[in-house]
Amino acid sequence: MRRVIDGRDLLPPEPLELTLAALDQLTEGDDLLLLLNCRPAPLFGILRRHGYFWDECAQGDGSFEITIRKGIVGEQ
Amino acid sequence: MPADLSFEQAPPISVPLRFFLSAPIFGVVAGALLSWWGADVVTSRWLGETLALTHLLVAGFMLQAMTGALFQFLPVAAGCNIARPMLVAATVHPLLAAAALLLPLGLAGGIAIALRVAAALFLFAVAIVVVATGRALLRTPAQGATVLALRLAVGGLAITVLLGTALADGLAGHRSWPLVDLTSIHVAWGLGGWALVLLAGVSYFVVPMFQLTPPYPPRFARWLPLLLLAVLLVWSLQLIVPIPQQLVLICGMALAGAFSATTLWLQQRRRRRIRDPVFWFFRLAMSCLLAAALLAAGVALLPALHDEASVAWILGVLLIPGVFVSAINGMLYKIVPFISWLHLQRLALPGTPVPNILDLLPGSAMRAQMILHLLAMVLLLMSAVWPSIVTLAGVAFATSSAWLGVNLSRAVWRYVRARGRIGASERGR
Fold first, then answer.
1. Position B426 pLDDT exceeds 80
2. Interface contact flag, B4 A41, Cβ < 8 Å
3. In this predicted model, what pLDDT tens digit does every residue of A8-62 receive, in sequence order?
């Protein structure tokens, strides 16, 4: 299942707050798509520390799409 | 495109916080002394007391906050960090604070030794800041208008302090410098080359991000600091050759006015109707900048106004408490809870509750202090016409600064308590 958070018109740190709340409910096999105006480096540190994986894709209009999924035990 | 928010490289939170928490103290001292000295300070910009108050704000309040912001902002906006930030901050912070107290003492009391020691301390501390931040800024691969503005601002700070040292030397009776010309160049580099260029560079980054505006037009953002630099270089030539002062002043004010008008225009085009205190503080700062630019250009065109003490007072109030104290006040309300919240998020395990930003610094506390700051501004401006009001204006400004300090300290205290709770909860798992 995919959940989408469009943070492009949200005031920082609302996108990060929503993302962290959504991560708590993310199960293996699900993914979370973030749409943001900037590359969220603080989030990456938190994801790395807690074993999540992500792909990022810069868009032509300067925004970013970040796809996050939960790490599977043993996966690196 | 907004730059990368490279928070992972950010310095320990205590590095910027020590500067941010110290800044309001200088505002309290300046307001209290203004109230104590009373109407005389309105009568001339050259009085020792007036110069002392000015430097409590520019070399105390502003320099503390802007140095802390620079340390915090380099990794965020320029993708670089200063080497050994704890050591640099621990060295620079007390030196700058001591210098910013000694300088007004020397200026108001005519104490030569205080002027000389303050100048030496500023020179040493700012040299460390310039080398530490300049090295990082020259090495970063990041490009763009914000990085360019930060580089020029650091250069502007160095020139301001060198000129200030020469002035202190002259006032202490050591050399016979052309003090009036040197002062006007020192003021231009301090308010224009350092403070305004830094404000522009920071605004390019934070206004679109925190106020959800479109980005600054790229060409405008890149050319503004370069053109300001060109104006300042021509302005500085007055030390050696005659220059068309009125024309150069009008060019500088046109650039400052263009920056404020662009920021106000971007605020009008924000994607959400945000009206938080940060938005209003920025709106106040940019309105004051536009008013100051128009007034200064008017003074350049009407020489009869040039020697009017009340005009100099209004310009000073618009530029220093109006533009820079307002913008810094707003930015501190955004930065301090934001970095506190981010540090808590980094420490907490998933599922551990972390207070949100408004728990750390409630909007009601910020709004109440903002209204007092606005009142202080109105009273300070009215003092140009009714100088006796300045006592009340000083009380309002001191109280507003104290309230800012209390609000920031409370946010930091809540951060420390939350950090303790998170630590205890992690240990309990």
1. no
2. yes
3. 888 888 898 889 889 888 888 889 999 998 878 778 878 888 889 999 998 887 7
Residue A31: inside a domain, yes or no? yes
Q: Does B7 contact A at CB distance below 8 Å?
A: yes
Give chain B's radius of gyration (CA, Å).
Answer: 21
Three-class DSSP category at B111: coil
Dihedral sign (CA B318, B321, B324, B326): negative
Distance CA B415, CA B426 (A): 16
Mutation target among A46, A50, A59 for the B interface, most CBs of B within 10 A = A46
In CATH, which of 3.40.50.1820, 1.20.210.10, 1.10.8.140, 3.40.50.720 is domain B12-344+355-419?
Answer: 1.20.210.10
- Beta bridge partner(s), residue A33: A4, A67
Does A58 reside within a domain?
yes
Share in percent of chain B as helix, strand, coil (round to 5):
80, 0, 20
Name the domain count of chain A: 1
3-state secondary structure (DSSP) of residue A69? strand
In the numeric block, which tokens belong to residue B183? Answer: 């002062």
* Subunit contact B342:A62, Cβ cutoff 8 A: no
Which of B320, B371, B323, B419 has the alpha carbon at shortest distance from B17?
B419
Residues of chain B with C-beta less than 8 angstroms from the C-beta of A45 = 7-8, 346
Q: What ipTM was predicted for this assembly?
A: 0.75
pLDDT in tens, A17-31: 889 889 888 888 889
Q: CB–CB of A24 and B210 under 8 A?
A: no
Task: Provide the token pair at B124.
Answer: 């040493």
- Asked if B4 lies within 8 A of A38 by C-beta distance, the reply is yes
